[in-house]
């Protein structure tokens, strides 16, 4: 049986076992002979007594020497190594060090990342000299890691800093599962309850887990920043909503938020007595075309995140009307022609150039008898960029062409037949943000209003849960519907189909449709999640990004021609987007809010399913015997010490009472 020691230097203490022997030998002085009267009758008894006493003294000496040796062994902490996990010379030890943002939290007298570094150093020290290590962090999982000696590995760990990548144990598993160079893995993290136990328990090499717990008792989390409506106003006031929650020991508190908007500061308070809250700040629409700001909590007692946000306003909304119908052209030119914020361009169906359609925000197909199926394929990319289509049918459409067009747009619409009936367009989905601010009185009784009449419409079957019937006829047939940035009217707007031309609602409806094209899709993006943006290589063949630290890089679109928030965006903050050296937008990148949540410090749920969980104390120290996968046997030596002490006590008792 092979026995190893965690602290073999303590074995030198066993040399102290010679001390009782030296003392015993010193006491063995030569006796002086003294003559006195005859004791022959007592000689036999005295001889027997001296012999017994000598045996007991030597037994006590032996026990005391054994006690010193055993105490030194206990201090050296013996263990029996696991034969299934022998150290293999030439193979590497992998160490994963969590560097996600939550590792900056306090832990004892230091923070989590400091404690994690201490753990990593102790792991390295526990292996024989010459062992090679691979150090993985949340930031470098996608990069190749080469084996390093212990000193170089310690330097790498010392230089490691908190990053912006969240912990991704699935990516860690994929990174190491086929690495034949690894013989053991050590995972140091504060978020081990997110780990898939089924994956890691079936790795072919041993894995140890080190849950970093921390004493942060309160966390103020800004979950989201948003507007009630995705349509950005060009005049008036905007209202920014902030949802937040207070997590931890504090039951109720007034929390102040700082809202930075361009060069203006706003401060709002929120009562987080129920630990969840929604606040809002109202600000006048600024003149800048690009608006950016951030929100952060002013609460020193809690860990809090900072949320960056931004959006781009269009100076002019560009509308392209494709129509051969002079009546529809006249109606829409009258609606849009008086608006300074809208530019409308009219082309006939024969003269439309769809290669330039991406330069417009709203495309209206007005009164076309037939829509070519190829339009759908071209305009599918148009809507994916956040731009808007509005389809107004003619009074005599080609059903097959319309159905094929919608199919190519990936919209499940089926135009069935033409219906002649006089109905009212009286059912409005007023809760939808499309109607926000359309009526001055928000509590208006809709039944008291006079709605447009419809004399002829198309029966459209819509088979999609994503469809929204903004306005329906009083027989519940859709009249104005919205799906995936495509507005569809079920009737023409000619006077023979509806009286909408003479109704005041026509201006409000088509202005809202135009404003809908100026909606902002994302106020911010989560970092490192490969989010899709509304930029396309068809509109912008080449883009450049200026990072928060003012460095520049070329933004390359994916194979689909769309631009993604990829790994190049490796820091939080504002990223300026340039096309031909002109600033066209600002993207805001944030760390996901869950990184600031207080983690379960006991990890009871998932860690119970894991083998080899190593406890980390408040100083970041660990029990190295568990690292080596050995069975601790110090307790057996302690029992032997206790037994020997009992034997020694009994022997001394007999000597004294003899």
Architecture overview:
There is one protein chain. This protein has 658 residues and is α/β, with parallel strands linked by helices. It has four domains: 4-81 and 634-656, no CATH class; 83-216 and 599-629, Rossmann fold (3-Layer(aba) Sandwich), CATH 3.40.50.410; 317-516, Class I glutamine amidotransferase (GATase) domain (Rossmann fold, 3-Layer(aba) Sandwich), CATH 3.40.50.880; 537-583, no CATH class. Helix content is 24%, strand content 31%. It has 13 helices and 34 strands. The longest helix is centred in the N-terminal third of the chain and has 37 residues, at 40-76. It is elongated and about 155 Å long.
Features:
Rossmann fold; alpha/beta; 34 strands; 8-stranded mixed sheet; single chain; elongated; 4 domains
What is the CATH top level name of the largest domain? Alpha Beta
The rounded Rg comes to 40 Å
> What do we call the CATH topology of the largest domain?
Rossmann fold
Largest sheet: 8 strands, mixed
Count helical runs.
Answer: 13
Assign a percent range to the helix content: 10-25%
What is the structural class? alpha/beta
Calculate the mean pLDDT score and round it: 80
- Count of distinct structural domains: 4
Strand content: 25-35%
Overall form: elongated
Q: How many beta-strand elements?
A: 34
Distance between the termini: 43 Å
CATH architecture descriptor name of the largest domain: 3-Layer(aba) Sandwich
Give the low-confidence spans. 600-609
């Amino acid at each position: 049986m092979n026995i190893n020691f965690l602290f073999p230097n303590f074995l030198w203490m066993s040399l102290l076992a010679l001390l009782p022997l030296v003392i015993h030998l010193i006491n063995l002085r030569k006796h002086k002979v003294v003559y006195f009267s005859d004791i022959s009758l007592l000689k036999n008894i005295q001889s027997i007594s001296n012999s017994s006493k000598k045996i007991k003294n030597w037994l006590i000496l032996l026990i005391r020497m054994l006690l010193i040796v055993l105490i030194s062994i206990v201090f050296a902490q013996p263990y029996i190594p696991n034969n299934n996990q022998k150290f293999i010379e030439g193979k590497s030890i992998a160490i994963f060090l969590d560097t996600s943002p939550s590792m900056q939290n306090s832990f004892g007298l230091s923070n989590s990342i400091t404690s994690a570094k201490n753990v990593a150093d102790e792991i390295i020290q526990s292996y024989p000299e010459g062992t090679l290590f691979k150090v993985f962090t949340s930031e470098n999982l996608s990069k190749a890691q080469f084996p390093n000696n212990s000193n170089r590995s310690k330097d790498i760990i010392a230089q490691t800093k908190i990053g912006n990548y969240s912990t991704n144990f699935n990516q860690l598993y994929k990174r190491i599962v086929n690495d034949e160079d690894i013989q053991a893995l050590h995972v140091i993290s504060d978020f081990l309850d997110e780990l898939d136990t089924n994956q890691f328990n079936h790795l072919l090499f041993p894995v140890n887990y080190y849950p970093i717990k921390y004493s942060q008792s309160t966390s103020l989390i800004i979950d989201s920043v948003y507007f009630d409506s995705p349509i950005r106003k060009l005049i008036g006031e905007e209202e920014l909503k902030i949802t937040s929650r207070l997590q931890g020991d504090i039951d109720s508190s007034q929390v102040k938020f700082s809202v930075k908007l361009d060069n203006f500061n706003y401060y709002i308070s929120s009562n987080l007595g129920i630990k969840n809250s929604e606040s809002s700040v109202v600000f006048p629409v600024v003149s800048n075309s690009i608006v950016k700001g951030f929100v952060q909590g002013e609460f020193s007692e809690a860990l809090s995140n900072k949320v960056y946000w931004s959006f781009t306003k269009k100076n002019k909304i560009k509308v392209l009307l494709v129509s051969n119908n002079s009546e529809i052209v006249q109606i829409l030119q009258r609606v849009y022609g008086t608006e300074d914020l809208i530019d409308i361009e009219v082309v006939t169906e024969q003269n439309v150039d769809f290669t330039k359609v991406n330069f417009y925000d709203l495309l209206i197909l007005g009164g076309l008898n037939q829509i070519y199926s190829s339009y759908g394929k071209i305009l599918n990319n148009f809507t994916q960029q956040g731009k808007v289509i509005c389809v107004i049918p003619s009074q005599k459409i080609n059903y097959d062409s319309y159905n094929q067009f919608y199919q190519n747009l990936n919209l499940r619409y089926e135009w069935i037949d033409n219906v002649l009936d006089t109905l009212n367009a009286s059912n409005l989905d007023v809760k939808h943000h499309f109607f926000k601010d359309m009526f001055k009185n928000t509590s208006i009784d809709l039944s008291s209003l006079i709605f447009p009449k419809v004399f002829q419409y198309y029966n459209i079957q819509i088979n999609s849960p994503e469809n929204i019937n903004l306005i329906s006829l009083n027989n519940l047939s859709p009249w104005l519907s919205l799906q995936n940035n495509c507005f569809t009217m079920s009737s023409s707007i000619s006077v023979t189909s509806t009286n909408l031309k003479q109704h005041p609602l026509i201006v409000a409806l088509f202005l809202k449709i135009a404003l809908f094209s100026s909606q902002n899709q994302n106020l911010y993006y989560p970092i490192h999640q490969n989010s899709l943006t509304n930029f396309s290589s068809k509109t912008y063949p080449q883009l450049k990004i200026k990072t928060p630290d003012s460095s520049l890089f070329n933004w390359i679109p994916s194979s689909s021609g769309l631009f993604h928030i990829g790994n190049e965006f490796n820091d939080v903050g504002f990223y300026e987007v340039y096309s031909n050296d002109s600033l066209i937008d600002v993207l805001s990148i944030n760390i996901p809010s869950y990184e600031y949540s207080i983690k379960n410090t006991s990890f009871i749920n998932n860690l119970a399913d894991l083998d080899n969980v190593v406890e980390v104390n408040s100083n970041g120290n660990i029990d190295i015997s568990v690292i080596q996968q050995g069975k601790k046997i110090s307790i057996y030596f302690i029992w032997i010490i206790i037994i020997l002490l009992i034997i020694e006590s009994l022997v001394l008792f007999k000597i004294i009472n003899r």
